[in-house]
Amino acid sequence: MNKERPAAVQGVIDLRGWNLARDGTARLDGEWEFCWGRIMEPSDFTEPSNRNGCGYIRVPSLWDGQTIHGASIPGRGHATYRLQIRCGPDTGMKTVTIHRIFSAYKIWVNKTLIDERGDMGGTSKKSENFIFIHNKRFSSVGLNEGLNEIIIQVFNHDYESGGIDRSILLDDKETSDLKKSRQQAADLIVFGMLLFAAIYNILFNFSENRMPHRCISVFYVFCLR
What is the mean pLDDT of each run of 10 residues along the chain (225 residues)? Predict the structure, then answer.
């Protein structure tokens, strides 16, 4: 029987019963605290009055059309997300995986900036502001026993809607590194097979000068681009 995955409720996710090495990746899905129209630093959350007007939003989701305290949120704008993670005594290194956030962001774990991407304040369409479907970013973090805090500032000025469009993942670092090594090995094997097939077909095409094989050669070269 599969173990029920934990989910965030009103800005807190309890991972004390979830062993990352044994049970697998934790998806930090559920209700995150959400402060619309405000770019807040980790220190801002130490004062409870600074959180007045914040609500909750489901992650993953885009924020366009959602409502906070009865007000509808437009697609373009900025916001701050916050999630508290309740951890057990396992304090080994972890990996946080970000798949897709629209479009610029900064992320802190326990008041330490671990990653940032894009232009948080400008309106220029820089290449780093655009999201690619397979783009992933990995950050190594240490978590403490008890409460830990993730804060993400998100600034969207390039897309019709901003937000966190894919699950944020938490892994055991050793397990995550092993997965990445296996994926890289698989990619190299596929690349090698395509390269061999391309070279073989190009040589065969020159030796036989047959049009069908010329087409196949072009196809393989295209695959390698």
Answer: 88 95 94 96 93 95 92 94 94 90 93 90 56 74 95 92 94 71 64 74 66 48 49
Residues 6+ apart with CB under 8 A from 28: 8, 13, 59, 83, 85, 150, 167, 168, 169, 170
Cα–Cα dist 72/84, whole Å: 25
Question: CA–CA separation, 103 vs 173, rounded Å?
Answer: 26
12-173: CATH superfamily: Galactose-binding domain-like (2.60.120.260)
What burial letters (b/e) apply to 43-54, b meaning 16+ CB within 10 Å? Answer: eebeeeeebeeb
Residue of 31, 34, 122, 148 lying closest to 80 (CA atoms): 34
Q: What is the pTM assigned to this prediction?
A: 0.78
Distances (CA, A) of 11 to 33, 57, 60, 101: 5, 9, 13, 18
